[in-house]
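Hi C.,

You asked whether I'd gotten around to modeling the 406-residue construct. I have! Everything is below, sequence then structure, no commentary in between.
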Amino acid sequence: MPRKILLLVFCILLIATNCCAKRGDLLTSNWYENKTYSRFEIETLFESALSSKFVRNWAKGIMGSAKNSVRGYQITYVSINHSGKEIPVSGMILVPELPVQQRAPLLVYQHATIFKNSAAPSFLDYSNQGKALLSTFATRGYIVALADYVGMGQITDYPVEYLYAASEAANGVDIIPATEQLLTKLGRTTNGQLFLSGYSAGGQAASAMGRLIQNSYPEYNITAMALMEGPYDMTAEMEYLLKPGGVEIGGLAAGSVIGAKAIYSYKNIYQWGSLSDIFKEPYAQCVQKDFSELNPNILLDSLDFKADTALMLQPAFIDSIRIGAAARDVAENNTDDWIPAMPLYLLTSKADVLIPAQITEKTYSKMKESGGNVHLVYIPFLFDHSKNFMPSIVASWKIFSRFSLK
């Protein structure tokens, strides 16, 4: 029996046989590959992730060199899916090698869109986002928790719930007590500070998580949040992806790929009917092939997508997602409708064509006018959405360093 199936069966048995098992319980943990990432390795990872010498020098001027070696811990824990069912999910915890008595802040980072399951944070050596957080935050003294979300990472027997705000928020909240339980096993503890962050789809997930904690988990005191280029207004983002001509990045039909992935996820959650009710042929078959597999070649398959997303869709579905039942379902995933009490920083780029700065600016204005403790930050590089990830992470470290206890 494959290892992943054995792991899923083991996790389900743990939940089923332990009457005390509940959301946030740590089910399994293992030291990832029995590997400690040295400062030299981390420095190499960091340098390779930055796009130019100019940007590397900018980042070095802000952050300096790697400070500590780091270990990763692959975990499974109890969380919920869209229906509220308690299920096992997985994640990665990055723990800096600090003196035992030294306590560290906790950062929960919500990951951006991935197209291959092997890029989920719990596959640390293959996760660009995991390595980015390792080489920025973890080496500089933060414990970092990264949830894989439902259906990703080590537990793949559930449908992926992409851009579904409620379960992504719950998966993020539930990784906090699971992390605390792991740290207890390691003889470590946090300093009580909690930071939240996320990029792109992860920005939306982190916003939903911040809202959930503020409304329902008073025991978690968020020190500060940094949300980076996220689709906080999913209604506006979906309409933007349907605009005439579509959205391309480097010749890739990026808007159609993201839009199709979101629609595929929402179709399963909201029971929108068959793919042929939503997509014209041959696109219905292409979407099924791309997003029902764990490790599809999305970049290759997306060459069959039209740049203009609307041309792939059935006219009746376009009406529904703009003014009908599907539009109401999409709006459930808007995460710009709360008033942050903690310092919340919205980072964006004026060159982002996938999630344009206007969406972030609109979210900022909405939260600010409601009395939120919110701040708008423009990244100082005119990079597209895919290239602005590392500069945004570095900028978020600079922001959080203002709050970190020394």
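If it helps when you're writing up: The longest strand covers residues 26-37.

Thanks,
B.
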